[in-house]
Structures are given as structure tokens and as C-alpha cells.
Specification:
There is one protein chain. The protein is α+β, with helices and mostly antiparallel strands. The chain folds into 2 domains: 200 residues, Triger factor/SurA peptide-binding fold (Orthogonal Bundle); 107 residues, Roll (Chitinase A, domain 3). Helix content is 49%, strand content 14%. The protein has 12 helices and 11 strands. It has a 4-stranded antiparallel sheet with strand order 7-6-9-8, sandwiched between helices. β8 and β9 form a beta hairpin. α2 crosses α4, α7 crosses α12 and α8 packs across α12. The chain is elongated.
Length: 348
């Protein structure tokens, strides 16, 4: 797996797996004074969109500020810039998650220092050059230096080196420990073969007549008459398009906007009367009226697929990704717990 020499997005890592191919997303200029004022009564909360340098946490005495916290919050919810804030109902969760991220990041950095890990100057220089290239306009680069690196190249070098050390530690403790050989994947597949069995699947179209709830006998009789008339037209609709156009014009169910088409679904998930009818039909055949839920439905079978067991080679890549994600999360939690256990963390 190729690792880009740019900062891992720690936010995504903490919530899911460890994405090692991302750029220094957190180090891009991520906040603007324009974000400090959301419209009155807005569903977005602007209060956290300005940072003053206030200390929000300490990790073994090292101060983390609201600037670090806000940067991580933008990593979690990048749309805040477009929407002038974070959703009020989500802000506290975003803030809580961001706090955990910046603390974990600092714990990893301190652990890398404790192990006396180093980064080659050429890697740091390459990363700096990539940042400059991504920002393109020299004015943007100078603004970036001012906001994120104390206004100096030396400050940027220090930040880049810090991020690369964190990345290297995570590669050692998580990425390298979460690989699976083909033999291991095959063993898991064979042990959990039931998970790779696909049930009988069916795709079909529908035309429905649904009278209003608590309809009187006259309305119900009219609905039946309409359903009988539609059945005659449906039987004459010999193609997907003809049946679909009839559904669009006359059906009462929500699927009429998609020509009555129902995406493939396990037969076992359908009502018994529907399942029994569909499994007795041939592709292209139209059913008789089926009375269900106080209304009437007409079915047209598109395809009925028998149950199958997916072969190992067809699921290998998907399985590998799944198991790696699970393992990386386990290792991430264990590393976080281990580092916290021997550290003093204060969230203010």
C-alpha cells in the first residue's frame, strides 16, 4: 500500500479505519472570519467557528488549543464552511469526537518521540513542496503559513515532521499489523460460508390500486372495477416499457415514478402472497389481481435468481477490506487505551 507523504486525516481514522492515503487535509486553511456569523435562528451553530488559542486539553502537560479542536471539527464536518456552522443537533458530538482525535494524535506524537523515531529531511521537504503545490497561489501559501505554521517555513517543517511521525507510528502499530494473507482470508471465508450465501432474489414491476382507508362499499366497488380494468391493460402490456408506462399513468403506489420497478429483493422479505405468486411465474408474465392491505396489486416478473453461494475469488477483495477495517479499529482502540493508561490527559 502506497503511503502519500502527507498527513493522515486522524478524524476519519478514529471514526472508521485508518486511511493512510489521504493528504494533509487538516493542515489546509480550514477556518475563516466569515464563518463567525450564522443567520439568526439558523439550524447551524456558529459559536465554535472562531478560535482564540484557548487551551482545551493537556496531554502530559502539552497544551492543545481550540484552534486544534476547530481544525479537527472541520475534518469531521467539512460542510460547516458552506453552511456557516455546525448543525446544532450534531455540534456537541462533533466537538466530542474532535477532542478525542486531537488527544489521540498528541499521544501518538509523544510516543513516537519516546521511541526516538525520526523522519528523513527529504520526506519533510517533499511534503512541504506538495503543500505549496496544492495551494498554488503564493498568497494562499503565505496565508496558510500565517494561520497554521506561525508564519514561518520553520514552523511548517515542524508541523509536517510531527504529522509524518504520527503516520509512521500508526503504520507500525496498526497498518502493518492489520494485513491478511490469502490463506487467512480463505480460512475465514470457509469458516463463515453462510455469510456468503445469497438468497433467492426477485425483481419485478407493480401496478397498485389503493382505496382510501375506511372507504365505504361504493368506493371499494369502484376500486375493484378500476383494478379489473387495469388488469386487462396489464395483461396486454407485453414489454417492460408498456407495463411501466401503464404503472406511471395509473398506479397508486410510490413505485409508479420508476415505471413500477422494484429493485432485486430477497424473496423471503416479501409478503407471503406476493412471494408465492412471483415464484410461480415466468419472466415477463403478469399476475392476476392480488388482494393485499385493503387494495389490489398486479405483478410483472422481471427476473427470479436462484440462491447462490458467492465464490471466494469474487468476494476476496471485499472481504480483505472488511477484515482490515475491523482489525485496524481494534488496534486503534487498543493503542489509544495503552497510550492513555500511561499518560495524564486533561480535557478542559
Amino acid at each position: 500500500m502506497r503511503v502519500t507523504p502527507i498527513k493522515i486525516v486522524i478524524g476519519a481514522m478514529l471514526l472508521t479505519a485508518i486511511p493512510v492515503n489521504n493528504t494533509f487535509a487538516q493542515m489546509a486553511p480550514s477556518h475563516s472570519p466569515a464563518l463567525s456569523s450564522a443567520p439568526s435562528g439558523s439550524a447551524m451553530a456558529p459559536a465554535t467557528l472562531s478560535a482564540t488559542g484557548k487551551v482545551v486539553a493537556r496531554v502530559n502537560g502539552v497544551a492543545l488549543t481550540d484552534r486544534d479542536l476547530l481544525r479537527e471539527m472541520f475534518t469531521l464536518f467539512p460542510y460547516a464552511k458552506q453552511h456557516n456552522g455546525f448543525p446544532k443537533g450534531m455540534e456537541q458530538d462533533i466537538r466530542h469526537g474532535a477532542m478525542k482525535m486531537i488527544v489521540f494524535e498528541e499521544l501518538c506524537y509523544q510516543e513516537a518521540q519516546r521511541r526516538k523515531m525520526t523522519v528523513m529531511p527529504t520526506r519533510v521537504a517533499k511534503a512541504q513542496a506538495q503543500i505549496r503545490a496544492e495551494l498554488k497561489d503564493p498568497r494562499n501559501y503565505q496565508m496558510f503559513l500565517a494561520e497554521e505554521a506561525g508564519g514561518s517555513e520553520a514552523g511548517l517543517r515542524k508541523r509536517v515532521e510531527r504529522m509524518l511521525l504520527i503516520q509512521d507510528l500508526l503504520n507500525i502499530e496498526i497498518i502493518r499489523k492489520s494485513s491478511f494473507s490469502d490463506a487467512q482470508l480463505k480460512a475465514y471465508y470457509e469458516k463463515n460460508i453462510a455469510n456468503f450465501r445469497q438468497p433467492q432474489m426477485v425483481s419485478f414491476q407493480t401496478i397498485s390500486v389503493v382505496p382510501p382507508p375506511n372507504s365505504n362499499p361504493e368506493v371499494l366497488a369502484e376500486a375493484r372495477k378500476r383494478a379489473d380494468d387495469l388488469l386487462k391493460q396489464a395483461k396486454a402490456a407485453t414489454t417492460y416499457e408498456k407495463f411501466g408506462l401503464l404503472a406511471e399513468k395509473s398506479s397508486d403506489d410510490d413505485f409508479r415514478v420508476n415505471m413500477g420497478y422494484r429493485k432485486p429483493v430477497p424473496v423471503t422479505k416479501l409478503p407471503e402472497s406476493i412471494a408465492k405468486t412471483l415464484t410461480s411465474m415466468k419472466a415477463g408474465q403478469v399476475s392476476d389481481l392480488i388482494s393485499i392491505d385493503g387494495g389490489y396489486t398486479i405483478l410483472r416478473l422481471i427476473k427470479l435468481d436462484p440462491p447462490i453461494t458467492r465464490k471466494f475469488e469474487s468476494v476476496k477483495a471485499e472481504l480483505k477490506s472488511y477484515l482490515q477495517t475491523q482489525k485496524q479499529e481494534e488496534l486503534r482502540i487498543a493503542l489509544n487505551d495503552k497510550l492513555r493508561a500511561k499518560s495524564k490527559v486533561e480535557e478542559l
